């Protein structure tokens, strides 16, 4: 026998059978002293934006032109507004055009002013093109840092 085993009691002295999901009485939790005192942590509350994103990205199966297709709720809402706009609903048309104008790629720098370094690079490139120094692949020398703008010299 192992040194950690409790001595076997005769069958008539045992209060209950020890086995699967039936631990010995001495190793059970004592009354008022449970194993999970703090309880289960509550789920983190989602923000309105997260809830909206979750709902709009859910997919639904529907019939379109006789075929079953999967769409997100966002696509379905836009499709409904487009159909209403075609039927003459001005508000739906305005909403679609407003959404289209707002949905610009944030990575694109369209409409943003150039900083001084970018302006200097473009001026150097234009000077190289005009002088015929531009290479076949469109690259130019790395000495643009030493470039003196003709407008600045005057």
What does this structure look like?
This protein is mainly alpha-helical and 154 residues long. It is 36% helix and 8% strand. It contains five helices and two strands, in the order αββαααα. The protein has a two-stranded antiparallel ribbon. It is elongated.
Keywords summarizing the entry:
2 strands, two-stranded antiparallel sheet, 36% helix, mainly alpha, 154 residues
Strand order in the largest sheet:
1-2
Mean pLDDT equals: 77
Taking pLDDT < 50 over at least 5 consecutive residues as the criterion, the unreliable ranges are: none
Shape: elongated
What is the succession of H and E elements? HEEHHHH
Compute the separation of the termini in Å. Answer: 102 Å
Question: Could you tell me the strand content as a percent range?
Answer: 5-15%
Rg to the nearest angstrom? 37 Å
By DSSP (H or I, 4+ residues per run), the number of helices equals 5
Pairing-aware structural class of the strands and helices?
A: mainly alpha
Largest sheet: 2 strands, antiparallel
Give a quick summary of the entry.
It contains five helices and two strands, in the order αββαααα.
Write the layout of secondary structure elements.
Blueprint: H1 48-56, E1 59-64, E2 67-72, H2 73-86, H3 90-102, H4 116-131, H5 150-153
Antiparallel strand pairs: 1-2
Helix pairs in contact: 2-3
């Amino acid at each position: 026998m192992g040194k950690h085993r409790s001595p076997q009691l005769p069958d008539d002295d045992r209060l209950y059978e020890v086995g699967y999901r039936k631990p010995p009485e001495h190793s059970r939790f004592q009354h008022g002293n449970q194993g999970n005192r703090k309880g289960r942590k509550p789920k983190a509350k989602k923000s309105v934006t997260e809830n909206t994103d979750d709902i709009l990205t859910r997919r639904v199966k529907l019939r379109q032109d006789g075929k079953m297709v999967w769409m997100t709720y966002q696509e379905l809402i836009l499709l409904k507004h487009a159909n209403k706009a075609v039927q003459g609903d001005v508000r739906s048309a305005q909403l679609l055009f407003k959404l289209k104008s707002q949905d610009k790629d944030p990575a694109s720098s369209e409409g943003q002013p150039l900083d001084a370094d970018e302006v200097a690079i473009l001026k150097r490139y234009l000077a190289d093109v005009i002088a015929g120094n531009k290479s076949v692949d469109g690259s130019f020398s790395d000495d643009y840092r030493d470039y003196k703008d003709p407008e600045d010299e005057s």
